[in-house]
Design brief:
alpha+beta, Protein Yojf, Chain: A, Trna Endonuclease, Chain: A, domain 1, 4 domains, 7-stranded antiparallel beta sheet, 6-stranded mixed beta sheet
Length: 509
């Protein structure tokens, strides 16, 4: 006969109170934190901890708010953190945490911020979508990936219908907010592959006020036959407002007129000739008319008709007395940045790999795509206001007059597809308005009005695994091709992989 099971007696309230007091006594800056709220410091004279009946009641207050909770038991005890199961009148049981702000460090502080935003995000969703239920919400991971992010993501359901939701806190910078759509599409796709009984109709994205423009522009070029997409902004009080994509104005883009190339005069012409004789040095005409002197895409000097400046991180004028320094710099970069260099850890070899890849691709553009004309090929036009993406772009044209945007990345980047889309839509914007021809680009070539092609070029093994998933949601009007080059691209540019759209290399979807 099996013995009867017995349940362990609940911890006595006096013992709970003693353990809490012991924890607080060891804290430098004790505070109580409830997900969705700001931490309240537990300062002398500003909190009470009393035994009432079968539980312990904590009452804390500060200038920013107050808290009264009945503590049922201690759930967990970690260094610098005590988790408590609590009850609040008229609410189901929940939990709070006692934390030591003096010992918490950045990781615990980040966790507190995420939990706070997670609960605020839950309340936003429940207010915005009455009658729907938030059945899953988290703030530690995004998009079904293992990457920790400052986003909160949720599943919102009503009967057999559901949608994915994702939001980013106000503390995130603009670049992080612009990454929201990448993670949102991965989250949507993850739910669709996981859910068997419910239809996950689409994705709803939440950004702080005046931070949604980049995401809104991208939504215009997603495939509406695959999913619905809605964009919202929220204020400090948690109020939300839906954003109509038709309300967006001009893109943050400009296309400067193509300047005539400089015709250097002595002594600048002589300096250019001497520098061009150094190993690896290349002359590149910039759209602004200057002559760029570079090695492996790394610009070390620039020249106009009568002036030359030099430097990697500064712009110093060149004169007869200091030209030998420019020559020495060119030789140093040429030796360090040689494709056959034995010192592949040299800082000049490792510096700006995207610029090096750009230089290689620009000089061998027909290897990337045989239909493209070898010249002209323009770098970084049009300009993107406030852009510092670590990704470089080329604009080329094929034999039929159709433009092609070549987006380059020398290392793995989850956000490559959408950043490529950013540049593609700007090229399309200027093409639709006839600005490339009017401003002097592609002289003598009649440009086709068809949307440009988008070529994503990267070492074949450095495409992020999520690239195919994100590309699956692109509109059919965005014709994308991934071009994977060999790992030895510095020595010899060779295409080892091609894939159209979201297809897998080899042609399988």
């Amino acid at each position: 006969m099996k013995p009867l099971r017995t349940t362990a007696p609940a911890e006595a309230p006096e013992r709970i109170r003693a353990r809490i007091q012991e924890f607080l006594g060891g804290c430098r800056e004790p505070a109580v934190f409830e997900p969705g709220e700001k931490p309240i410091p537990l300062e002398p004279g500003r909190f009470e901890l009393q035994v009432h009946g079968s539980g312990v009641v904590l009452h804390a207050w500060s200038e920013s708010g107050s808290l009264v909770r009945r503590i049922l038991r201690i759930r967990g005890d970690q260094r610098g953190k005590l988790e408590l199961a609590v009850h609040r009148l008229g609410r189901p049981p929940s939990s709070i945490q006692l934390i030591d702000l003096g010992r918490s460090g950045p990781l615990l502080g980040l966790q507190v911020e995420r939990l706070e935003f997670r609960e605020r995000f839950r309340r936003m969703l429940l207010r915005e979508f009455l009658g729907w239920e938030v059945t899953e919400i988290s703030a530690s991971r995004a998009g079904g990936t293992s990457q920790s992010t400052p986003f909160a993501q949720a599943v919102v359901r009503q009967g057999q219908q559901a949608f994915a939701a994702i939001g980013v806190d106000e503390s995130a910078d603009q670049a992080t907010g612009d990454h929201l759509l990448s993670f949102g599409l991965l989250w949507l796709d993850h739910l669709r592959s996981r859910e068997q009984r419910r239809a996950v109709s689409g994705l709803k994205l939440f950004l702080p006020l005046k931070r949604s423009a980049a995401t809104g522009h991208r939504l215009v070029f997603l495939n509406r036959s695959l999913a619905t997409y809605e964009l919202y902004e929220f204020g400090p009080d948690g109020s939300t407002v839906g954003i109509d994509e038709n309300n967006y104005g001009n893109l943050a883009t400009r296309l400067e007129p193509l300047a005539a190339p400089a015709l250097p005069l002595p002594p600048v012409s002589g300096w250019i000739e001497r520098l061009a004789a150094c190993p690896g040095v290349e002359q590149v005409a910039r759209p602004d008319g200057l002559i760029s002197l570079q090695v492996g895409g790394l610009e070390f000097a620039r020249a106009s008709a009568g002036l030359m400046t030099y430097g990697l991180d500064e712009d110093r004028p060149v004169n007869v007395a200091n030209f030998h320094k420019v020559e020495r710099l060119a030789q140093e970069i040429g030796a360090a940045r040689a494709a056959e260099s034995a010192d592949t850890r040299h800082q000049l070899y490792l510096r700006a790999p995207e610029k090096w890849l750009e230089a290689v691709v620009r000089s061998s553009i027909t290897v990337v795509d045989a239909t493209l004309r070898p010249k002209p090929v323009y770098a970084q036009v049009p300009a993107m206001a406030g852009s510092d993406r670590g990704i470089l772009d080329l604009v080329a044209v094929d034999s039929g007059g159709r433009l092609a945007v070549v987006e380059l990345k020398a290392s793995e980047d989850l956000h490559l597809p959408l950043q490529g889309l950013d540049y593609w839509m700007r090229v399309k914007w200027h093409l639709d308005r006839g600005e490339f021809t009017r401003r002097g680009y592609f002289p003598g070539i009649v440009l086709e009005p068809a949307p440009p092609r988008l070529l994503l070029v990267s070492p074949a093994f450095d495409f992020h695994p999520s690239t195919e998933t994100i590309l699956r949601y692109f509109s059919p009007q965005v014709e994308v091709e991934r071009v994977g080059v060999g790992a030895e691209w510095r020595r010899r540019l060779q295409v080892v992989m091609r894939a159209r759209g979201a297809e897998r290399p080899g042609g399988t979807e």
